[in-house]
Design goal:
heterodimer; A: 73 residues; alpha+beta; Alpha-Beta Plaits; two-stranded antiparallel ribbon; 21% helix; globular; B: 370 residues; Naphthalene 1,2-dioxygenase Alpha Subunit, Chain A, domain 1; 2 domains; 7-stranded antiparallel beta sheet; 17 strands
Chain lengths: 73, 370
């Protein structure tokens, strides 16, 4: 199961089957990531704007279950 | 858990009636209270786990997400500014394996994450997320909350009390607030300058008792505090209530022959058991003495100086206060040797000048014996 929006450019998407609720992404980039009521990642904004790549990459790398990835839109 | 559950179980102590009688006659607490490990343990549970102690300046918790790591006795504490704008205090131990949520002050956006296994808490202490908990049978996030402690401000100062049901600090400080309000108003015009720290080889009560009387100032501090401030019985004023003590003294000397007339002098507030703040015309300070063992304690004193004025005198005054506190350390370390010997059962106070000391000792004995 994936959350993604196909519009061109790059975006961050989550695989909820992998998410274990570590919240590491939220700790790195709280403006973009949250937890939903099921204790899983909720992406508040998928689109990765120029200048945001490093922070998003850091959040993706911080996920211990590889539940996040950056992909082309 | 204490080795003893009550002061009656400490071997060799006079009974409650004898101690109260001695205190009423101007004698000190029995010397055993200043070195016995069993008394130290009892003090942790009967005093430091149940009393208000200084944590930090309110500016450290000005924004939502700010948190401060502190302690009250042996209770590690974290204080947060939550989204509701309120201050919240908790035992700084994750409900998983009791690792601290943080080890130094900081800021987080929404969640406090334990750095050990990643349990994450809302700023009001509610567990929000625990890794892999979705696969754990009968694991209810909503039932887990950081253990709360009491937090309250006294003007610009944040105080904590490990007892979440403690009597409010504002009730304990009602009488002194008539005086301390003006002190803290003046101190708001000062900026933080430096933290002084002193490690003493003495029981915490010896250092605290030294801090709440100035009978010693004309001799021990003749070249420091006693040089600058009137410390004779007609000028140095001390008032006390159940949990608080107030000192005030006129200034008598300034460097370079400057005229001290019209200056406000020294004002000092003490909150039982171990916290204090003060201001004079060139330096203000806030701090506490923290027990570290039956015969060891640590004092931290955050020094403030006037914003944008009198930098030269303030520098000299900082030195004067450091000298004063070093002299206090030397004296209290030396006192401990007399207490430890056990050869003198108690001291004899000069009640006209050391009445606040009797009050401190009665308050301490009340806490230990009830």
């Amino acid at each position: 199961m994936s959350r993604a929006t196909k519009q061109g450019g790059s975006q961050v998407v989550a695989d909820l089957a992998k998410c274990q609720g570590y919240a590491n992404c939220l700790m790195v980039d709280p403006q973009r990531f949250d937890l939903d009521s099921a204790n899983q990642v909720a992406i508040l904004r998928n689109l990765v704007e120029p200048g945001e790549e490093d922070l998003v990459q850091e959040a993706v790398r911080a996920c211990p279950t590889q539940a996040l990835r950056i992909e082309d839109r | 858990m204490s080795a003893v559950e009550s002061i009656d179980e400490v071997v060799g102590l006079p009974d409650d009636q004898a101690v109260r009688s001695d205190l009423s006659q101007g004698l000190t607490l029995p010397v055993e209270l200043y070195s016995d490990p069993a008394v130290y343990r009892l003090e942790q549970s009967r005093i430091f786990a149940r009393s208000w102690q200084y944590a930090c300046h309110i500016s450290k918790l000005s924004s939502v997400g700010d948190y401060v790591v502190t302690a009250a006795g042996e209770t590690p504490i974290i204080v947060t500014r939550a989204g509701d704008g309120a201050l919240h205090g908790f035992v700084n131990a994750c409900r998983h394996r009791l690792h601290p949520l943080a080890t130094e002050n900081g800021h987080c956006s929404r969640l406090l994450q334990c750095p050990y296994h990643g349990w994450s808490y809302e700023l009001d202490g509610q567990l929000r997320s625990a890794p892999r908990s979705n696969n754990e049978a009968e694991f209810d996030l909503s039932s887990i909350h950081l253990a709360p402690v009491a937090v309250e401000t006294w003007d610009q100062w944040v105080f904590v009390n490990p007892d979440a049901d403690a009597t409010p600090l504002r009730d304990l400080t009602k009488e002194i607030s008539e005086y301390s309000g003006a002190l803290n108003q003046d101190l708001r015009e000062y900026d933080f300058a430096v933290r002084y720290e002193y490690d003493m080889e003495c029981n915490w009560k010896i250092w605290a008792e030294n801090a709440i009387e100035c009978y010693h100032c004309p001799t021990l501090h003749r070249s420091s505090f006693g040089k600058a401030y009137e410390s004779g019985p007609d000028d140095y004023s001390i008032k006390w209530w159940n949990d608080t003590i107030w000192h005030s003294a006129p200034i008598k000397w300034l460097p370079k022959d400057r005229d001290p007339t019209s200056l406000k002098g020294f004002r000092f507030a003490f909150l039982w058991p171990n916290s204090f703040f003060a201001v004079d015309d060139y330096v203000g300070f806030v701090g506490a003495v923290v027990p570290k063992g039956p015969e060891r304690c640590h004092a931290f004193v955050d020094m403030y100086t006037p914003a944008g004025r009198d930098a030269d005198i303030a520098e000299e005054w900082l030195k004067l206060w450091d000298d004063t506190l070093e002299e206090d350390k030397l004296a209290t370390d030396r006192q401990q040797l007399g207490y430890r010997s056990g050869m003198v059962p108690h001291g004899r106070l000069m009640t006209g000048s050391e009445g606040a000391l009797s009050a401190f000792m009665r308050r301490t004995w009340d806490a230990l014996s009830r």
